[in-house]
Each structure stands twice: as structure tokens, then as C-alpha cells.
Write a structure and sequence with these properties.
The complex is a heterodimer. By secondary structure, chain A is of the alpha/beta class. Chain A has one domain: 3-Layer(aba) Sandwich (Rossmann fold). Chain A has 5 helices and 5 strands; from the N terminus they run E-H-E-H-E-E-H-E-H-H. Chain A has a 5-stranded mixed beta sheet. In chain A, strand 1, helix 1 and strand 2 form a beta-alpha-beta unit. Chain B has a domain of 99 residues. In chain B, helix 4 crosses helix 5 and helix 6 packs antiparallel against helix 7. By secondary structure, chain B is an alpha+beta fold. A 5-stranded antiparallel beta sheet of chain B has the order 3-2-1-15-16, with helices on one face. Chain B has a 4-stranded mixed beta sheet with strand order 8-7-6-11. Chain B is globular, with a radius of gyration of 22 Å. In chain B, strand 1 and strand 2 form a beta hairpin. Classes of the chains: A alpha/beta, B alpha+beta. Chains A and B meet through helix 3 of A and helix 4, helix 5 and helix 6 of B.
Chain lengths: 149, 470
């Protein structure tokens, strides 16, 4: 199973792009081996489900580069921080999955550069305009993942 | 030479704070303070908003306990409408509140405090975290995750989402509980109860290793405030307030929440943005009290559920003044929450579709009070003729404990911090006493998670003598 988690605060403008893309992928990727979730923030309760996945993809907003720029990077369990609060980072979730349940799948973080993170329930016009292309690109990345489910 | 030690920021709490410890010329602790260093001004920017927006708006005050604010806010709006909430809706709100308390307590105990309790206060800070716990006691770490999952899932099932659910509305809840949802929640409860019992047993086994901390954390004696009911039982949603003294005697009883301004005053201190409420008739600081799990269990006769009452019997043998026992009280309340949810889900009308009362505003002021994980929470709104908020006053649970936290830091520092030779273990004990209260500063600040701990020893002229970082 591939687990896709899009996260961010949709009331802070482009910070909601992770959730938005995840919701679009949920419609596009009709595959029983792919589970898509969109959440406000990453919380420790995801650890168990992550430990059961063969691959986990995190989709978040980024602040680097031109608006709509997609960056990818592997998430490494060994770099996760030790402190759990109500909000944790992808690396910590993978490390916790390994420590608590004995399994941490490979992880990929896809970040999409936003422009405005001010109070707004809408994406910025620039990001909204390229949304369909972004969803296509992220879908292509997921379909190319080196994993057989 | 007199010196000052800073712990900035305090770690493994929710929010931003720092601790300063003032040493005298002989190197002994002279004074200490717990500072909340950021201000959000939430009360002010509510002004001018329509009152019916308040539950949703107030849930945004905090990502940790949005449900508690949602409930207190909805109760304040009920008072503005002057309606009687249908009994089924009140019970559904209770279930949501209990799930919130259970998951919040689990976060505090398992994620934030269990590293101190399992690995010891003097353990290497690199290992004194959940991964250290997982290495030494993986079942305990998994139990923490599972308890949080159960609480969060109940909130999601009822409220539609885990964070900032909008199901609680003025006059009741927006939709009734379905039989399917009820069955889903009931299915999770045995697991929650079993884990709670297992953890209570484990904690009783290790508590003997913390005799010195238990004593040090009891140096400050205060009164306790919290909700109870006519049956003298633990009460999280309704009822009346009771205040008891440090010896357990009732100071004031059957205090009505809507009259809170007659007996609670919020004191402003120069060293913190967090206010310090106190019991008005006794003045400040004699009128200072503590709230939260320790207070709630100290002021009631029973929990009112069978297994929590069995655990309460052991709690009664402990020093009721020691803030260390917030931990054990928190575990009892987790157990109580799951037992009580089970009881409420078996009430005959829990699936009734009469879950909301409708009305226009009938009162100019509305006050809502409920118990949040950290203690008594009060929302007080005033509106104009158009239903727009003209004044909002929020008395946050963590605020009630502000003075007690501040003075506890001093007492613990006096006992453990000796001279300029500061060790991690000393400083961690000073932080640990704050963690027993489980302060949530997000209600007045934005929490951003883990930050490095910075401790500075400064000479009276401000020159940096020594610096430690985690």
C-alpha cells in the first residue's frame, strides 16, 4: 500500500496546497493499493498506519523557488527528532514507525512552492492557475515510485 | 557574585515560555519566575464579530484543545440565546469533551512526561524522549499512540474532523448521533480502558523512585478549584464550582459559573503575559488555587465510574498537595473518560434527533464554563443589539495555574539548583514541575513545537558567564 498524506493549513493561503493536491489525487488515483489522506497537520497518531505502508508520500507547501515549483526529497527515518508534541515532521513519523512498530517504509516529501501564506481560505491566484498541472506532475511522480504494490 | 540563570525556551510544553532563576551572592537561589513571553490578544479581535461565529472562531484559539474552547464557547452562546440545550445534545457534547480530555492527557503523559518518568530526570537529554521510551518500554510508547488515536477518532467520528470540528453549535449540536457511529465508538472503548488500567499499574510501580521529586513538588500548598455535581462526583461539563483548601476543607461550594466575576479576579503580573486568577474574597496571593486533574480529584468524593473509583482509592493515599501527582490524576481521568463515554452511549435517548434548540439572542451577556484537560475554562461574551460581540473575556485553564507554576519553579529550584554548577538534571527538574501542570500556552501564543533549550548564567552586569544548549 502506498500512503499519501497531503498536509497544511487551508486557512493560510498557499499552505493549503498539500491538502488540495491530495484531494485531487484521491479522485484521480482510483487504485485500491493507494490510500490518500488530507490533514491539517502531521500528528503522532499516523505512526501505526505509516508502519504498515510500503511507501509513504508527504505533500506539503514550500517557500523556496518560483511559485508552483515542485521539489522532491527522500525522507530519512534516522534524522527524525525525538520530541513528540501535537505536531511532528515526516522524519520523526518514520523514525517513530521504526521504533514503535519495527517498520518504516521509504518516504518521499514533495513540496510545492507557494507565494502567500497570509490569512485566506483561497490559494493565491498564481498557484490556483497552475493547480491542474501540479496535480498531473505529482500524479506522475507517484506513478513512477520505485515500489510494487 | 549574584547571577541569573535563564531556561529559554522551556521544552516539552505546548507554547513559548522561559524560566529565570536568580542566584544571590552566595550562589543560593534567591528568586525564580515562569514567564509566558508572547501575547495573541484573541479576546480583542473577537470584538465586532457576530456571536454565532464564536464557537468556530474560538476553536481556532488552540490546536491542542480546540474542543474544550468549542464547548465553553457554545455554552456561552446557549446563555446568550437563553435556551435549554436538549438533553441528548448535552450528552453528545459531554462525550466529545471526554474524548478530548483523554487524548490530551495521553499526549501529556506519554509523549511529554513519560521520558522523565521512565528514563529518569538525570538521563541523557538526547535519549530522554519518546524514542528512548520506545527502546526501553515499547509497549508503553505504543500505548500512548493508541490512546491518542482512540480519543482523536472519537472526536473525528462525532465532529467530522480531528482538529477544529464544527459540530457543536449554539443551542446544541448540528446533527444527531447515528447507530453506526455509536457502534464504532463503543468498539474502541475496551482497548482504551485496558491500556489505561495497564498504565496505572505501571505508574504505581515506578512512583517509589520519585520520593524526592514528590516532596519537592509539594512545597507549595494552595487551594483547589473545579466543577462537581450534586452527587459529589467528577464533572467535566456542567454542575457547579467548588473550592477547597490545602487540607481538603470546603472553602466555597455551589459557586455558579455565571457569577464567576463575583469570586474570581485576574491578577496581572509584570513578568508574564499570562494572568493569574485568584479567589476574590481571600485576596492575592492567599486566594490562589490550582485547577486540572489534581484539583478535580481532590475536591470530589468519587469519580462515579467503577474502575476509575478503584484507582482513586490509591490516589487517596498520596500527598494531595504534590503537583507530581497530576500525572497519576491524569491517568485516572483517562480511564474515567472512557468509562463515562461508554455509560453515556448507553443512555436511552442518545440516538434522539432532538439535538438543537433554536432562538434569537435573548440576553446581552453569556457565560459558558466547562472543564478542559488542564482545568476550568470560562468564556464570557457580551453582545450589542445586532448580536455583535462588544467584549470577550476568556479565563483559560492554564492561567488559573499560573501563580502555582511560578512559585513551584522557585521551590523546586531552591531544592535542586545549587550555585553556578548547573547540571542537566537540576534544570530538567525545574522544567518537570512545569510539565506536571501540562501548561498549554497556545491559547495565548502560537506553539511551534520543539525548540532547543538555552540556559544562560549572567553576571549582574549582564555579562555571559556560562551557556548551555540542548
Amino acid at each position: 500500500m502506498i500512503l499519501i498524506i497531503g498536509y497544511g493549513n487551508p486557512l493560510r493561503g498557499d499552505d493549503g496546497i498539500g491538502q488540495k493536491i491530495a484531494q485531487m489525487l484521491e479522485e484521480r488515483l482510483q487504485d485500491k493499493h493507494i490510500q490518500v489522506e488530507s490533514v491539517f497537520q502531521l500528528t503522532p497518531e499516523w505512526v501505526e498506519r505509516i508502519s504498515q505502508a510500503q511507501f509513504v508520500v508527504f505533500i506539503d507547501a514550500g517557500m523556496d523557488g518560483e511559485v508552483g515549483t515542485i521539489r522532491q526529497g527522500f525522507v530519512r527515518a534516522e534524522t527524525g527528532e525525538g520530541v513528540f508534541t501535537h505536531n511532528v515532521c515526516p522524519e520523526t513519523l518514520l523514525r517513530a514507525a521504526l521504533a514503535l512498530y519495527g517498520a518504516a517504509p521509504p518516504g518521499l516529501l514533495i513540496s510545492i512552492a507557494g507565494e502567500s501564506f497570509d490569512y485566506s481560505a483561497e490559494l493565491s491566484p498564481q498557484l490556483e492557475r497552475v493547480l491542474p498541472e501540479l496535480a498531473e506532475q505529482v500524479e506522475a511522480i507517484i506513478k513512477d515510485l520505485p515500489v510494487v504494490v | 557574585m549574584a547571577q541569573k540563570i535563564f531556561i529559554d525556551p522551556v521544552t516539552r510544553i505546548e507554547g513559548h515560555a522561559k524560566i529565570t532563576i536568580q542566584l544571590d551572592d552566595a550562589g543560593e537561589v534567591e528568586d525564580a519566575h515562569f514567564h509566558v513571553t508572547q501575547l495573541r490578544g484573541f479576546e480583542k479581535f473577537c470584538e465586532g464579530r457576530p456571536f454565532h461565529e464564536m464557537p468556530s472562531l474560538m476553536a481556532r484559539i488552540c490546536g491542542i484543545c480546540p474542543v474544550s474552547h468549542l464547548i465553553a464557547s457554545a455554552k456561552a452562546c446557549d446563555a446568550l440565546l437563553a435556551v435549554h440545550v436538549p438533553p441528548t445534545a448535552a450528552n453528545l457534547r459531554r462525550i466529545l469533551n471526554l474524548a478530548q480530555i483523554a487524548q490530551s492527557h495521553a499526549l501529556s503523559f506519554f509523549y511529554l512526561s513519560s521520558p522523565d518518568l521512565l528514563l529518569g530526570m538525570d538521563a541523557d537529554p538526547e535519549k530522554r524522549n519518546l524514542f528512548g521510551v520506545a527502546q526501553m518500554h515499547p509497549q508503553l510508547a505504543r500505548d500512548g499512540v493508541r490512546l491518542r488515536q482512540i480519543g482523536q477518532q472519537i472526536i473525528e467520528i462525532l465532529g467530522g474532523k480531528r482538529i477544529h470540528p464544527a459540530w457543536v453549535v449554539p443551542g446544541g449540536v448540528s446533527e444527531p448521533l447515528s447507530a453506526e457511529k455509536r457502534a464504532k465508538i463503543l468498539a474502541m472503548l475496551p482497548d482504551g480502558i485496558e491500556i489505561s488500567l495497564r498504565t496505572l499499574d505501571w505508574f504505581k510501580g515506578i512512583i517509589g523512585g520519585y520520593t524526592e521529586e514528590i516532596r519537592a513538588f509539594a512545597a507549595l500548598r494552595t487551594m483547589f478549584l473545579g466543577l462537581t455535581n450534586e452527587d459529589n462526583q467528577l464533572e467535566m461539563y456542567d454542575g457547579f464550582l467548588r473550592l477547597i483548601d490545602a487540607d481538603g476543607n470546603i472553602v466555597a461550594d455551589e459557586l455558579q459559573p455565571e457569577n464567576y466575576e463575583q469570586f474570581i479576579v485576574e491578577k496581572v503580573e509584570s513578568w508574564s503575559y499570562l494572568k493569574s486568577p485568584f479567589y476574590k474574597p481571600l485576596g492575592y496571593p492567599a486566594g490562589v488555587y490550582r485547577v486540572g486533574p489534581l484539583a478535580r480529584l481532590n475536591l470530589v468524593k468519587t469519580c462515579g465510574t467503577p474502575r476509575a473509583d478503584e484507582a482513586l482509592a490509591y490516589f487517596r493515599t498520596l500527598d494531595s498537595q504534590s503537583s507530581f501527582h497530576y500525572h497519576y490524576a491524569r491517568l485516572i481521568e483517562i480511564l474515567y473518560c472512557f468509562e463515562k463515554i461508554d455509560e453515556l452511549l448507553h443512555t436511552p435517548d442518545i440516538l434522539s434527533d432532538r439535538v438543537r434548540a433554536h432562538a434569537e439572542p435573548n440576553s446581552e451577556q453569556g457565560i459558558g464554563l466547562s472543564e478542559a484537560p488542564r482545568g476550568t475554562l470560562i468564556h464570557d461574551y457580551q453582545i450589542d443589539r445586532n448580536g455583535l460581540i462588544t467584549r470577550a473575556n476568556l479565563v483559560i485553564a492554564t492561567g488559573h495555574n499560573n501563580y502555582a507554576m511560578d512559585r513551584s519553579v522557585l521551590e523546586v529550584a531552591k531544592r535542586f539548583v545549587k550555585g553556578a554548577q548547573v547540571t542537566e538534571g537540576m534544570l530538567n527538574r525545574v522544567e518537570a514541575v512545569i510539565r506536571t501542570f501540562d501548561p498549554c500556552l497556545s491559547c495565548s501564543t502560537h506553539a511551534v513545537g520543539q525548540m532547543p533549550l538555552q540556559i544562560q548564567l549572567l553576571a549582574p552586569d549582564g555579562e555571559l558567564v556560562e551557556e548551555m544548549r540542548r
